[in-house]
Design brief:
heterodimer; A: two-stranded antiparallel ribbon; B: 5-stranded mixed beta sheet; 8 helices; elongated
Chain lengths: ~160, ~250
């Protein structure tokens, strides 16, 4: 885009540089091309894209769990090999990064829940704060159950 | 006090292939709004500049423009808050460009505007039956959504609308909810037909920027997510209880 000088009344004379493609009475509207990296325009867009992309990590976590089940099904040696793979430093490091992404996804997702969920008791609306806290409590509760199950399994 | 440099996007299709930026120097005045600076340009520097405005007090919703890349009402944005200059002023994003800032859209209810399909009241009792009575709680249900001034800032903030122009968009859905949640209205079913389509609520991926830029605190993003839940519940009801009338 060029910058025209706007000095004086009227700026540049519109007739001095005619657009050969102009069709009078049938204007073709200008539509700006959307840049591929539109989401870098502000921090909130970036946060949105990260939130959406970390959903892929949820899929990864689910597949990892399935792989674990398959390894158990194949017998002790396959399970041991899978555990050995999990304990490799680069796998551990990768999984820590993925865990951070999963936590980001979970927290941002839970924080949005009160926007969608409007509940009432009789006429009164339950405040969004209560909906939010209930979601977090449910998350912590389920996580505690999983941790308890794992710890009990380790003791056995 | 230093003068302020404005870079205003102009588009004159008879003259140029694509929009250009024109620079204007305006004096810095304390408590000037961006709109005051533009009016100074129009009055003293360049009478050909075209843009829309009317009320100067954040009610009419016509003076929305992109200022330094953010959709704002120029009558409600202080020049000092968008310094240092140059201050870039462009038409609202996502609408096909016409002549200048503020000339970019037909509005919510204009010629085939997105609001036409869903954002109007429906049904209701005949006039002879007297006035409607509503409790304060019933008013509170929809009041927030009725504050919309159709300024279209939420459309300019929405990347989905920019990528998919058929999306009926944040304000139209918020206004649909304004009537859906009004105890006097009976058009929920008609609106469901439009809103539950892909170009209705489901195109929204909950970026949430519409609610951030709304000058009236309408929260269109919240309205859309609520409706997604409602549309899903309605689908389950129709599958599990097909004999039930909607």
């Amino acid at each position: 885009m060029r910058t025209a000088s706007g000095e004086g009344w009227g700026g540049a004379d519109p007739r001095s540089v005619p657009n050969p493609e102009h069709t009078p009475y049938h204007p073709r509207w200008y539509r700006e091309r959307i840049p591929l990296f539109w989401w870098l325009r502000n921090r909130r867009y970036v946060k949105f894209i990260v939130r959406e992309l970390t959903a892929v990590l949820v899929l990864y976590a689910a597949l990892l769990l399935l792989a674990l089940v398959v390894a158990v099904d194949r017998g002790p040696s396959a399970y041991a090999a899978f555990q050995e793979w999990l304990a490799r430093p680069w796998v551990l490091a990768l999984h820590l990064v993925i865990l951070a992404g999963l936590l980001f996804h979970t927290v941002t997702w839970l924080n949005l829940a009160p926007k969608a969920l409007v509940l009432r008791i009789g006429r009164r609306r339950i405040s969004p704060g209560v909906v939010l806290v209930a979601h977090y409590l449910a998350w912590i509760g389920v996580s505690a159950l999983v941790v308890a199950a794992v710890v009990a399994g380790m003791g056995a | 006090l230093e003068p302020v440099n404005l870079q205003v996007q102009r588009y004159r299709p008879e003259q140029e292939l694509e929009p250009v930026f024109e620079e204007y120097e305006v004096p810095y005045r304390e408590n000037w709004m961006v709109l005051d600076a533009l009016n100074h340009v129009k009055d003293h520097l360049d009478g050909t500049l075209s843009y829309r405005w009317a009320c100067r007090m954040g009610v009419c919703g016509s003076c929305g423009m992109m200022v330094n890349g953010e959709p704002v009402l120029t009558c409600a944005t202080y020049v000092e808050d968008v310094l240092p200059d140059p201050v870039r002023i462009e038409p609202l994003r996502g609408f096909p460009g016409r002549s200048g800032p503020g000339g970019g859209h037909f509005g919510l209810h204009g010629e085939a505007g997105p609001g036409e399909a869903v954002a109007h009241p429906a049904g209701g009792a005949p006039l002879e039956e007297g006035e409607y009575l509503q409790t304060p709680e019933e008013v509170a249900d929809y009041k927030q959504y009725s504050m919309c001034i159709n300024c279209m800032l939420c459309y300019a903030a929405c990347p989905i609308y920019e990528l998919e122009p058929d999306f009926i968009g944040p304000a139209a859905i918020a206004l649909a909810q304004r009537y859906n949640l009004d105890s006097r209205d009976q058009g929920q079913e008609e609106r469901m037909d439009v809103l539950s389509q892909h170009d209705g609520v489901w195109a929204c991926t909950f970026v949430g920027e519409c609610s951030v830029v709304c000058p009236k605190g309408v929260d269109p993003a919240g309205a859309i997510q609520r409706y997604k839940l409602e549309a899903t519940a309605e689908w389950f009801r129709s599958v599990l209880m097909p004999w039930r009338k909607p």
